[in-house]
Amino acid sequence: MDKRLYIETVGCQMNVLDSELVASALLERGYELVDRPGRADVILLNTCSVRQRAEDKVYSALGRLKHVKEHNPLVVIGVIGCMAQKDGPLVFRRAPHVDLVVGPSQLGQVPELIEAIAAGAGPQIDISPDRKGESHRDAKRSFLPFDPNRAIEARPAAHQAMVRIMFGCDKFCTYCIVPSVRGPEQSRPMDEIDREVRRLAEQASRLGVALEVTLLGQTVNSYQWRDGGQTWRLADLLARLDGIEGLARLKFVTNYPRHMTDDLLAAVRDLPKVSPYLHVPAQSGSDAVLGRMKRGYTAGEYREMLDRIRRTLPDAAVTSDFIVGFCCETEEDFQRTAALVRDGRFKNSFIFKYSARPGTKAAEQYEDDVPEDVKRRRNNELLAIQNAISEEENRPLVGRTVEVLVEGPSKTSLKRVEAGESTQLVGRTVCDRIVVFQGPQDLTGQLVPVTIRKAGAFTLFGETVDGRQ
Ligand code: 5AD
Ligand code: SF4
Q1: Under a CB-based contact definition with an 8 Å cutoff, are residues 150 and 107 in contact?
Q2: Whose CA is nearest to atom 5 of ligand 2?
Q3: pLDDT (tens digit, 9 = 90+) per residue, 15-49?
Q4: Structural domain 3-139, CATH architecture
Q5: pLDDT tens per residue, range 263-291
Q6: What are the extents of the domains in the chain?
Q7: Residue 370 and residue 376: Cα distance in Å, rounded?
Q8: Does CATH place domain 276-394 in 3.30.750.200?
Q9: Do 398-464 and 3-139 fall under one CATH topology?
Q10: What is the Cβ-side half-sphere exposure of residue 11, based on CA atoms within 13 angstroms?
Q11: Nearest CA to ligand 1 atom 2
Q12: CA separation for the pair 363, 356 (Å, rounded)
């Protein structure tokens, strides 16, 4: 069989990392990556279940792949990740041209399952049993993380890497499907994470680029590793990784408000490589809604946490997620959320319309009773408030010189540049702000001082200090 892989990813950074790991495992077995499904022998869709829209997107992509299969019956079409875990055999029923269904905890099996299909074994499925029906220990065993060493070619950029430090979630917020598709919370051993980051830093040093590592976990700040009677938490892990040579920046997402401890904030303040950037979703500013969501804190407690962050890290960029139109959300509840967005001074917020997920507590216990047009209006209103704040928060940066890790040519300039030419580059500040400026392509992967000349809500525009273009 020829070995050309096309892989498409929907969803969060965890999924982007999973795709990278699966691609890497296949590259090691002789596959090459192609950029169009029509040219591939294996097509994988890595899927998301967090909102209905993400699932609809996958099923319509599968619809489009039908003719690829008709054209080439030997092509292997696989659905992997969260929706594969949630829908299981239903995927085959809705899309009979699919050959493979694999959950996020079985991704290590993908190469063998593809081989079995190519050898004529027929459609294959490998997912975890329903977490509800299992003892905690059995559930943990069936939801095993998959984090092999990665081939550098499988990473989109040598200067950026994601490293999983925990798997799964035990919070069971009532609206959220993640605990049932990603399984119980499990932290990876500290030594293993340390080794992985060292390897990535060595690779980056060899290539002469600065490395930014983003540590990933659904509730990353509840990281906990027990060894020899001692417990190590995220602050300890950060302290250990901070000393790694070749590592330039260290970030971590996503934080759970209740675990934003003082020692973690002190670690962010004191460790030179840790970015003062904290993504801490609030979800709502109303206590009644937060209670129904089972988030485990009140709006007042979230505000107190924000005050603690601002006291310890006055220059930190804080970002949040909000859900509008959750079950029984009144106009008054929504106004409380709007007030939190106003007062929170977030660098940016991701705002979502509530989407009922079958199998979650909210879908079972509460009615999805906020009409779609009300959800849409609240969504737009909150976005407008947040965008005005984002712009205000960016404005003081005008005239200042900031250190930018250059990610590469901006999307608009990508098509036009010849090697070595000056182009529009895009990079990020240490606080995760996007900066666009003119410069030579070979600055990609470098830390560059850039003077900011203009600020919008989403982007800063600047120029290199030495005037290099
Ligand atoms: N509907 C809408 N948004 C959701 N999120 C999680 N579950 C749902 C849902 N059922 C949002 C939360 C979370 C982000 C990743 O997605 O805000 O922080
Ligand atoms: Fe979902 Fe809540 Fe876990 Fe986040 S903390 S993944 S919102 S259950």
Answers
A1: no
A2: 171
A3: 999 999 999 999 999 999 999 999 999 999 999 99
A4: 3-Layer(aba) Sandwich (3.40)
A5: 999 999 999 999 999 999 999 999 999 99
A6: 3-139, 157-272, 276-394, 398-464
A7: 10
A8: yes
A9: no
A10: 25
A11: 354
A12: 5
